[in-house]
Amino acid sequence: MYKLVTISGPKRGQEFILHDGTNTIGRSPECDISIAIEGISKKHLSITVTKDVAYLEDLNSANGTFVNEKMVKKITVKNGDRIAIPDMVMQLVHVEERKVIIKKKISNSSSAEDATDLDSVSMPSSPIGKILYLFKHKAMQLLYGVNEEYEWRLLFSLILTAFVILTVTATIFPVLSDSKRVLLTETKARVRSYANQIAATNALALEKRSYDQINTNFLDSESGVVSYELFTPKGKIIRPIGKLNENIADIYSVGALEELTEGRAAMDNDTEDVDLFEREMSDGGVVIGKTIKAFNLKTQSAEPVGIIVIKFAPPILTSLATKNSKLYLESISMSTLLAIVFFGIIYYLTCRPLEELRMQIEEALRGKRREVEGKYFMTELSPLKSSINNILQKMRELQGHNAEDQFGEVEDDAPYLNTLKELMLGSAGPALILNSEKNLSSINTMAEDLTGMRETTSIGESLLDVAKEKGFAAMLIELCDQSANNNGTCQKGTYELTGNEYTIFATALIGKDHFAKAFYISFVREMN
Asked: Most exposed residue of 2, 311, 394, 459, measured as fewest CB within 10 angstroms of its CB?
């Protein structure tokens, strides 16, 4: 549904509802929307609404009609377009129609057939039934509310997207976390072995304070060692040589000294846990600190003589985060492609039975079918089919038709279409034929060049799908509907095609069942 909202002028803030079909606007009281403002013609413009398409036509007004600050004669307008006429500007707004479910309380004496509330079903007694009931009528209420605001296909696509992201995240993150944890464990064990090697080879030299005999050369050449510091329990650096006799300033070295000192004071034992310092760096590396001890003959106990702190970051550990992110994105991308395929499969599998049901209802209304059946298995549609068949039966009873007489002979569109095709062979101008569904059935070469629709690719398709301009298609459909509603009386309108004005004539061929079976449309160029 469309409406016009006045955003400028003396009637600012006023709204005008546009109904389906042609809406005339002008000063005349006979117009659908009458606006008494000087400068506006008696019949200034018209807006034709067909489903979700709106087509504007200026009715030869004196001061013209402007759409988005451009003067126009005929144009397809859309949501948000601004339409200017003398002394006022209106904005076209597309309003989504919402279905309102009326809930009413059902007394104990009322039958279940009187219930109109979708959630009026009582809770089953079985445990499984209760779970399904709570999920359908309680947990799903949020999604039902979203579906009232947005299209089902959009909601389904959002749910599928969330499912893909959550599934990939829940499955791949634990694997990536486990691989990182295993790699960190192996890396820490490797660095601890370096610290143990430094402690074993240099404990005696540290005890005797023979600092020139200390050997840490293998750490300088070891791949993955970012830095290391060997210092006394008082914080004086011994190695590397470049920092000899300096006080420790690195945050990890200071932390190792404090923690290991406090651990010895608190625990007063020789365990590995007390003499070991471990941290993980933010860039993916690890820090290992270890207390180096030597046996004191005087005290007959092992005393600390130094502390070694090693920063280690192998290339594979530093690049692990990048590789994990890349792997996660690749998984999301592949899953998204698969989700698109499955979306199409599920969407069209769901829509197919509904399309079949719609076509069978139309056939039943035209007298071609007694009841709706359907060849696609979908148990959820069975109650709906039963209700529709009951309605059709009651309609036949009210109309007083005998069932056998009504369905004894089924009338088809084909004879009427064939008649019009033979008639079109003698046409001297552009012409096309539509079937009862207003789908393209035939078109001659001149009409192909005029409309841009090719017979080879457009046969059986809706005009709204194959026409280049939606406004042109909407106008043809409107003329066909008017002819069908007036027992096949010819209807005409004008439209600009290929830069020239054409008068369009549409005539419906009415069948024995009083329904339009075919439409003949011809085009005549206006001569200036």
From this structure: 394
- Contact criterion met (CB below 8 Å) for 517 and 509: yes
pLDDT of residue 490 exceeding 90: yes
Q: Which of 284, 287, 224 is nearest to 251 (CA)?
A: 287
| Sequence-separated (6 or more) residues with CB below 8 Å from residue 310 | 191, 194, 195, 219, 225, 228, 287, 288, 289
Place of tokens 């959009």: 154
pTM beyond 0.70, yes or no: no
Q: What is the DSSP string of 285-332?
A: -EEEEEEEEEEETTTTEEEEEEEEEEEE--HHHHTHHHHHHHHHHHHH
**Partner residues linked to 505 by β-bridges:** 492, 522
Given a cut of 80, whether residue 458 has pLDDT beyond it is yes
Instruction: Please work out, in degrees rounded to the nearest 5, the angle formed at the alpha carbon of residue 47 by the alpha carbons of 43 and 51.
Output: 155
Residue-wise pLDDT for 173-223, tens only, equals: 787 777 778 888 888 888 888 888 888 888 888 888 888 888 888 888 888
Average pLDDT over residues 87-110: 65
Q: Is 85 in contact with 44 (CB distance < 8 Å)?
A: yes
DSSP state, 240? S
CA dist 489 and 415 (Å) reads 20
Whole-angstrom distance, CA of residue 224 vs CA of residue 67: 69
d(CA 447, CA 449): 5
Q: Is the pLDDT of residue 251 over 80?
A: yes
User: Of the spans 194-198, 225-229, 393-397, 441-445, which averages the highest pLDDT?
Assistant: 441-445
List all residues 6 or more positions away from 222 whose beta carbon is below 8 Å from its beta carbon. Answer: 194
Helix axes 382-399, 320-365, angle to 10 degrees: 20
> From residue 40, how far is each of 9, 47, 177, 234, 282 by CA, in Å?
13, 16, 72, 96, 72
Cis peptide before 240 (omega within 30 of 0): yes
What's CA 282's distance to the chain center, in Å? 37
Assign 431 to helix, strand or coil: strand
Q: Which domains are seen in the chain, by residue range?
A: 2-94 (2.60.200.20), 180-312 (3.30.450.20), 326-398 (no CATH), 413-525 (3.30.450.20)
Which residue do the tokens 């919402």 mark?
A: 98
Q: Per the structure block, which two tokens stand in for 381?
A: 């549609």
DSSP state, 145?
H
Q: Position of tokens 């009322």?
A: 110
Beta strands in 301-425 (DSSP E): 301-312
Give me the pLDDT at residue 411, please.
67
CA distance 310 to 307: 10
Of 464, 432, 435, 465, the residue nearest 450 (C-alpha): 432
pLDDT tens digit string along 14-48? Answer: 888 998 889 999 988 889 999 888 889 899 999 99
Per-residue tokens: 120: 């009026």
To the nearest 10°, report the CA torsion of 212, 218, 221, 227: -70
Q: Which structure tokens are listed for 446? A: 């001149």
